[in-house]
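Project standup — Tuesday

K.O.: blocked on the structure for the chain from last sprint. Re-posting the sequence here as requested.
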Amino acid sequence: MSYSDKEGLKQLPEASSWPKFSGTGQYDDIELIDYIYGLLIDVPSIPDDCITARLNTAFKGHASIWYTEMREIHGRRNWPWWKSQIIQKYNNGTCIWKKAISFENEKYPVYKDPYEWCLRQSKRLKAIDPQINLQMRNHKLLTQISGELEHTVKFRCNHNCTLDGVAKYLTRYEEKDKYREIFPMSKQWFQRETTSQGGIQRQNQRKGGGSG
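H.V.: unblocked you, prediction finished:
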C-alpha cells in the first residue's frame, strides 16, 4: 500500500458513521451514493478497496441479500461498478416515475415546515435526475409553490442560492402570512392610528403657535 493510500485510509470514517442502505427507503440509495461521493471529493486518496470494503456493513436487510448475491456472481468489483448497479436496481424507471409523481403532487402549502419540504423534494429531484444542477433544482422547487406565496417567492428568491436559502425565503414569507392572519386589520389600524396621531399633533402645534 502506498503512502497516499495509507493517509487516505486514516481519514476514512468508521463504518458505524456511514448511512445504512436497506433498499426499502425512498431515498437511502441516493444518500449512500452522495455520502461516498463526498468522501472522494474531500479525501481523493482513499483507496477504492476501502470504499467497497465498507459496503458490506452499509447494506442492510433486503439490500444486504442483494449485495451478497451480486458479489458471489460478479466477484470483486470497484465502486463505480457498484454505484451503477445500485442505480440500476433501486432507481430504475418505475422508481423514478413514482418519485416524479410524488414531487408533482406535493405543492408547498402554507404552515408546512419549509425545511422538511425543501429537503424531501430536493431528494426526489436528485433521484429523478442525479446530474441536476443547483439552479435547475431551485427552479423546479419554486414551481411547486402554490397560493399567495407563488408569485412573491418565485420572483424574489435567488435561483442560485442554497437549499437552506430557499427554505429561509419560504419561512420569511410564511411568517408574514401568519401575522396577517392573526392580525388581519393590523396594517389598516396602524395606518389609521398614524394618520390620526399626525392630525392631532398638527392641531396641537397650531394651538401652541397661536397662543404664543
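K.O.: great, moving the ticket to review. Confidence is low (pLDDT under 50) at residues 179-187. The chain has two domains: 3-91, 109-206.
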